Amino acid sequence: MVFALALLAAAAVIAGGLAIFGRSPAAEIAPPLPTARAQTPHAPKASEKLVISVVGHVRAPGLVTVPSGSRVADALRAAGGANPGVDLTVLNLARKLTDGEQVAVGVAAAQAAPAGSAGAASKIDLNSATAEQLDSLPGVGAVTARRIADWRTQHGGFSSVEQLRDVDGIGESKFERLREQVTVG
């Protein structure tokens, strides 16, 4: 009799466990997840305007305003075009412009810089050089050239060559290589 009672108790425990734990939980529906949108780098709005300094052998040198996304050819056209006989092969007419840059037409980069001190004609002026001209300096690539131009815009220009040290990405060794190749006009 004790054996039958123990057997009956064990069966009750097993049946109760199956009743409680034997069922599968109800399926949960996952909430909808937010979708990520691909972000593109800041592209200027079509309504934004660029101010470009066009210097050299053009009909109307000076500041021109062109729509965002414009190219060197557009700035040249806005300045009245090149003077007759000017060699434009040194310019990349298809290059996109950035606000505040300078396009030198028919003159070497060093000639575009205003005459400062003696010997400055062979140096690139930090306050008037284009991103392309800055990119031509040793150890300066497109990113560093853009940082120099951005620093110039944010701080109203360079008042000394030594301020080049304040540009992000220009350490002491790079500054020493650049020091004799740049000027401030």
Automatic annotation (TrEMBL):
SMART domains: HhH1
Residue ranges occupied by any Helix-hairpin-helix DNA-binding motif class domain in the UniProt entry: 132-151, 162-181
One Pfam family this sequence matches: HHH_3
PANTHER family to which the protein is assigned, alphabetical: ENDONUCLEASE/EXONUCLEASE/PHOSPHATASE FAMILY DOMAIN-CONTAINING PROTEIN 1, ENDONUCLEASE_EXONUCLEASE_PHOSPHATASE FAMILY DOMAIN-CONTAINING PROTEIN 1
Protein name per Swiss-Prot or TrEMBL: Helix-hairpin-helix domain-containing protein
Record organism: Amycolatopsis silviterrae
